[in-house]
Automatic annotation (TrEMBL):
The lineage of its organism: Bacteria, Pseudomonadati, Pseudomonadota, Betaproteobacteria, Burkholderiales. It holds the Pfam family CP_ATPgrasp_2. It comes from Caballeronia insecticola. This is Circularly permuted ATP-grasp type 2 domain-containing protein. Residues 69-445 form the Circularly permuted ATP-grasp type domain. Coiled coil: none annotated.
Amino acid sequence: MQIYDEMRQDDTVRSHYARFSRWLAMQSPETIARKRAEADVLFRRVGITFAVNGDLSGTERLIPFDMIPRIIPGDEWRVLEAGLRQRVQALNLFLHDIYHDGDIVLAGRIPAEQVYTNAQYRPEMQGVDVPLDVYAHIAGIDVVRAGAAGEFYVLEDNLRVPSGVSYMLENRKMMMRLFPELFVQNRVAPVAHYPDLLLETLRSIAPEGVDDPTVVVLTPGMYNAAYFEHTFLAQQMGVELVEGKDLFVEDNYVFMRTTHGPRRVDVIYRRVDDDFLDPLAFRADSALGVAGLLTSYRAGRVTLANAMGTGIADDKSIYPFVPDMIEFYLGEKPILNNVPTYQCRKPDDLAYTLAHLGELVVKEVHGAGGYGMLVGPASTADEIEAFRARLLAQPDGYIAQPTLALSACPTFVEAGIAPRHIDLRPFVLSGREVSMCAGGLTRVALREGSLVVNSSQGGGTKDTWMVA
């Protein structure tokens, strides 16, 4: 497979990497080693850790951070930005539609059973109007570049509780601290204003008649893998970080317990999954949510970001239909393409997948975080056969995609500088307006040959530069 190199074309450095390449050539191995050690100390001090899948010790590790940035030229970013705006707009229109009239289903563009029997569909949201008709206020869209030509593809839509933006911000702070001269030499678009954009978005979706909304971040608590991000964003926005036990519902309003008495809450940026939000409506054993929250939400007394029920739009069984959504709702062709996808619920697609398991990536439709998937070319014969049995037992629970030759970016590894595969997660904010920072979170597969970039699977992160 031909792999697109982000930094070089043949033996020539791409123009947008030229200044950085000259700077890198002047750095000694000793300087780089010293800076990497300094970064580790700073990240440990800040508390940016994560848990690695399969590590039975339960020890949290430093987030792996690479000091060679992923650089995107302005003309490429403009295409990406237009495609991301288009895609998120269509996804929000889809969510409003399926929880109201269901026109796209009635038109036969998406099978009814794919929507209404999906585990992520929430019948409790049927007929509920949400402010500005926006459901996915924070979307993390995973984009990859593949093939010799380096064409962009959307790999996944993350609309439930997308994470990782704190790493985007901390990576930039780290690079500016370690190498301030680079930001003098290169015109890098800023990202530090993301918390301001997020707070502005959250305030814009307050219930009708609320002019000065109280915004909170709802966290499952300190044992959640993304707790650092929850505390970080609350602190950066200057709002309260709360757990379910800090909130209660009275007269259909949500209140926060404070030392000065109850205070009404208008907007909840929730980092808790749907199933745990309200023990009266969903899982009765949940200690993470707020009893009566759904009733308050349905009455329009509080806004949740993201809305309940957004998971249906980022479910992998719905992913193949996003291009149809764009054409149906917007009358436009998709700017960013999907990865070709086999829907294993279809007999022909299942037969092809079973015959080519060693060549494909197979994913659970409800899976996330790199779990529950088979990367055929990197799997043993026994692993493939075990996965075949799972696929045959529940074919409608899986999709399959070709193994893409993800683009590679130079990365510091133990042996020196070597290419490693990457993806990109830009964060799209939707409220009264749609906004985003130029760039996003670049994730890198640190193991040689690996295509799995998730931190939970041993991946790392890079700073992402959009340069003029």
